[in-house]
C-alpha cells in the first residue's frame, strides 16, 4: 500500500465560456484565480486555475474553456460530483447566495452523515458544498464571500461507475480505506491527508457511459509532496500493472497520468514548485503565463484569447 498520496491535488474540468467560468468561481463562489495560462496541447484555449490564497494542493479547481464545445452527457466512468468543504452551519448562507444568483439544481441532502448543498455550475457541472467539521483550512480572503462562510478547499469527489470494486481496490492500493457504505455508495478515505481526502464510489451497473464535454471532469489529480515521492508512486503503479505516462512538466507541478479500471483518468501531481514560481503571491492569476514551448505565440494568443474582465 502506498503512503505518499496526501489527498486530492486538483480537479480539472471543461467549460464552454471562459468569462462565465471565471465569474462563477471568483465572483460567486469567492475563490481566487491563481493562474491564467493555456492548455499545453491546445494553446488557443485557456487553462484557468481557482483555489485558496496560494493555490494550495487540495483547493484547486481548474478548467479548459473550449468555445463551442458540446455539453457532456452524464453516465458511468466519470467524476459525477465535486464537493467543496465549508464550515458547519453555513449552508443556509450558501443556499440564499446561490439562489439569488439564479444557480440551478439547488438541493439539500445528506451523505454519510454530512449535510450538503448540491448545485449546478454554468455548464451543468455537478457540485456540492459540504459542512465539514474540524476543517481548519483557510479560505481565500474576505470578499466577495465572508471568510467565516468561505470554501476551505475540496472535501472530495464522487465517481459514478458501472462496477466499483476494481476502483476501490486501486484506491486501497493508493492508501485509501473503505470507511462506510450507504446504498450504492462506498466511501473511501485517506487518514492524515490534506483535508481533500474523501472519495465516494457509486456503482450503477445499468447506467450508460458518460460522454465528455462542457461540464465534465476531465481528470482528478492526487497530491504527493515532491518528485521523489511521485517516482515511488509511479514505480509501484507500473509494477501493479497500470499504464502510467512518463513524468510531464506542467510548470506548477510535475504530473503522471493513468486510466483507472472504471474509466476515470487519474493524475499524480507534485506539490512543488507551486503557483508562485512565476508570479508574486500578491498577484497570482493576473498575467497570462505561457509554457516555454508556447512563449513564441504570445502576440497571437493575446489577440486570439478572449479578454477576461475581473
- Reported CATH architecture: Roll
Assembly type = single chain
> Mean pLDDT score, rounded?
97
CATH topology descriptor = 2,3-Dihydroxybiphenyl 1,2-Dioxygenase, domain 1
Number of strands: 16
User: What coarse outline follows from CA principal-axis ratios?
Assistant: globular
Q: Measured on Cα atoms, how large is the radius of gyration?
A: 18 Å
Identify the CATH homologous superfamily: 2,3-Dihydroxybiphenyl 1,2-Dioxygenase, domain 1
Distance N to C terminus: 45 Å
Order of helices and strands: EHEEEEHEEEEHEEEEHEEEH
Q: Which stretches are poorly predicted, pLDDT < 50 over at least 5 residues?
A: none
Pfam family, one: Glyoxalase
Organism: Roseovarius nanhaiticus
InterPro entries: Extradiol_RC_dioxygenase, Glyas_Bleomycin-R_OHBP_Dase, Glyas_Fos-R_dOase_dom, VOC_core
Domain VOC: 7-132, 153-271
Amino acid at each position: 500500500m502506498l503512503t505518499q498520496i496526501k489527498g486530492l491535488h486538483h480537479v480539472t474540468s471543461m467549460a464552454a465560456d471562459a468569462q462565465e467560468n471565471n465569474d462563477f468561481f471568483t465572483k460567486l463562489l469567492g475563490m481566487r484565480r491563481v493562474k491564467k495560462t493555456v492548455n499545453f496541447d491546445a494553446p488557443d484555449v485557456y487553462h484557468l486555475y481557482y483555489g485558496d490564497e496560494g493555490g494550495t494542493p487540495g483547493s484547486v479547481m481548474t478548467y479548459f474553456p473550449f468555445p463551442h464545445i458540446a455539453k457532456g452527457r452524464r453516465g458511468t466512468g466519470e467524476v459525477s460530483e465535486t464537493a467543496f468543504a465549508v464550515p458547519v452551519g453555513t449552508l443556509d448562507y450558501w443556499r440564499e447566495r446561490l439562489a439569488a444568483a439564479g444557480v440551478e439544481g439547488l438541493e439539500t441532502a445528506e451523505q454519510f452523515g454530512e449535510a450538503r448543498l448540491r448545485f449546478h455550475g454554468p455548464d451543468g457541472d455537478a457540485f456540492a458544498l459540504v459542512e465539514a467539521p474540524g476543517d481548519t483550512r483557510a479560505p481565500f480572503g474576505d470578499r466577495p464571500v465572508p471568510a467565516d462562510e468561505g470554501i476551505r478547499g475540496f472535501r472530495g469527489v464522487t465517481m459514478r461507475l458501472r462496477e466499483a470494486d476494481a476502483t476501490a481496490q486501486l484506491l486501497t492500493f493508493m492508501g485509501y480505506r473503505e470507511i462506510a457504505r450507504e446504498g450504492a455508495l462506498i466511501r473511501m478515505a485517506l487518514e492524515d491527508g490534506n483535508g481533500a481526502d474523501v472519495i465516494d464510489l457509486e456503482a450503477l451497473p445499468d447506467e450508460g457511459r458518460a460522454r465528455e464535454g462542457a461540464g465534465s471532469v476531465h481528470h482528478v489529480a492526487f497530491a504527493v509532496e515532491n518528485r521523489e515521492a511521485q517516482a515511488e508512486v509511479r514505480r509501484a503503479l507500473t509494477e501493479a500493472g497500470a499504464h502510467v505516462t512518463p513524468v510531464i512538466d506542467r510548470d506548477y507541478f510535475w504530473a503522471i497520468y493513468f486510466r483507472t479500471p472504471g474509466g476515470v483518468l487519474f493524475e499524480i501531481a507534485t506539490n512543488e514548485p507551486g503557483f508562485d514560481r512565476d508570479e508574486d503571491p500578491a498577484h497570482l492569476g493576473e498575467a497570462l503565463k505561457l509554457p516555454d514551448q508556447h512563449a513564441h505565440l504570445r502576440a497571437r494568443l493575446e489577440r486570439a484569447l478572449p479578454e477576461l474582465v475581473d
